[in-house]
Amino acid sequence: MQSPHRTLGPSRRTLLIGAGATALTTAAASTLPAGAATAQASAATGVAPAAVPSPDELPLTGGSEFPIGLFWPPHPYASTAQRFAEIKSAGFDFVISGNYAGDGNIFQYQLGLARDAGLQMLISDDIQIRNMSRWFSISDTPTDFLSVTPDEARALYIRARDAYGPFSSLAGFNFYDEPGPGWFGSLAKAVAISRELAPQLLPYINLFPSDDPSYYRSFVDVVKPSLISFDRYTLLSEGREDTNYFHNWAIVRDAALHGDIPAWTFIQTLAYNNHREPTAAELLWQVNISLAYGAKGIQYFTYWTPEAARGEGFGPALITVDGKRTPRYDAAKTINTTWLHQVGRELKPLVSESVVHANENPLPNGTVGFTPTNLVQAISGNSLVVGTFRARDAASGDRWLLVANRSHSTRARATITLNNQAVASAGIFQPAKQTYTPHRTDSVAVDLSPGAATLIKLTTN
Hints:
With 461 residues, the chain is of the alpha/beta class. The chain is 31% helix and 23% strand. It has an eight-stranded parallel β-barrel, surrounded by seven helices. A six-stranded antiparallel sheet has the order 11-13-14-19-16-17, with helices on one face.
């Protein structure tokens, strides 16, 4: 049996989150409640297994708005009403706490700022939540090393829920960043406790980048999460791409469809060891490739720039270490407010049916080449990534095509030939008006700037 403390190896997010955790863990462990107190808490809440809520019933995954979030927000000294308004102005919906915010008073202060700015927060609480989901496993055997009992875990969760729950900006808790598969059994218990005690809150877990399908499929089957989130940063130094980026996305997409849950991802905003600083087109490209592969939520890594003392060679993100906006802040604001929110509202309720690469030879690892369908007969011209989506009502024959430029550096011009015997009408999505412009049904010519995409709706006969 694999140890629950084994991981797949550290990543940038793990290193950022892990700072300072040991001292907090020690302090929290010394205050775990006695058996009588936990028994009382358990009796008050009940112990029956909680039903798995639909993603439609939870913050961020529910509703019509496409969730756009950020990791590494302003540090506590920079957490002001103006800074949180700046986040909202850039089109963000939620914040994952971090950047040295580890104290309950700081979390409450930031939750108040988020509430006033119209933002939601996922709290990374090291003293309560992480002691039941990350630093200790949950075990019925009190003698297990570095474990808490289910009753102790419930008591820890109740403390966090009661401390932060009064804030309407609380979307949920960040349980674990990048767990190894040995943690899945314990995380399943933690997620079940969350659903038992606060079914209205989102239990959030982000996964490693991996080329192993069993890692993500096991996570879905064992933990029964409300969503599947992962990070993989594809923009490498010297203009290179991670050759397995698409493969990883295809695996995550498959796992999300298997569990009928949303898939979220992170996009790279900064340079760090062996990774380059993205251009505005490369930010947009990451977003649109992710949408084509079925993403139902986008998160930015990072918003505020981690300081140099962390030793990872972090370059400027959207906001510099000393609080200045970079060109990527403006680029992200444009993407979020003029495209991603609008197209996201269209795509969020749809089901990813397929994703193909057209006019690309050789095909990247893990990708599928275009072949004609009953609706799309041919795609000619430059390379595209095309995600096809259907309504959740499988009886509907209508389809949506998210057509993304495969390149983040050159323009793409292509023609999509439709089967006008099957397509009754076609429409091109206009994000500014949130409407579709009618288009003839024989073919659609696309002209996409680097990293850009368009959405086409096909109504069938």
